[in-house]
TrEMBL record:
Disordered: annotated span: 36-57
Keyword set includes Transmembrane helix: yes
Biased composition (Basic and acidic residues): 36-47
Keywords: Membrane, Transmembrane, Transmembrane helix
Domain of life: Bacteria
InterPro entries: DUF3040 (IPR021401)
Stated name of the protein: DUF3040 domain-containing protein
């Protein structure tokens, strides 16, 4: 989508005002924009980013470690509950 000249002028004014008011925030935003552009890599602006040609993104290592940890904790809790319930059921006289 193309910006009109009036919208571009307003955005430039906002950008200048931001840089004058808070240069640290402006530097952080610029750094963020650079990281986003690097992450997008070979994608072109016209590409919607989806579709058949898009590569599937792999989860980060920390996400995998957290999920495995939760799975292990859930398994241990389930095992302990089964052991306790079976022991209590065996101890109850019927």
């Amino acid at each position: 989508m193309a910006w009109s000249k009036d919208e571009e002028r307003m955005l430039l004014q906002i950008e200048r005002h931001l840089v004058d008011e808070d240069p640290r925030l402006a530097a952080r935003l610029e750094s963020f924009n650079e990281r986003v552009q690097r992450r997008e890599g070979g994608r072109r602006r016209g590409d919607p980013g989806g579709g058949a040609g898009r590569l599937r993104r792999r989860p980060r290592r920390s996400t995998v470690v957290i999920m495995v940890s939760w799975l292990l904790i859930a398994t241990l809790i389930a095992t302990l509950l089964i052991m306790v319930l079976r022991h209590d059921a065996a101890a109850l006289p019927l």
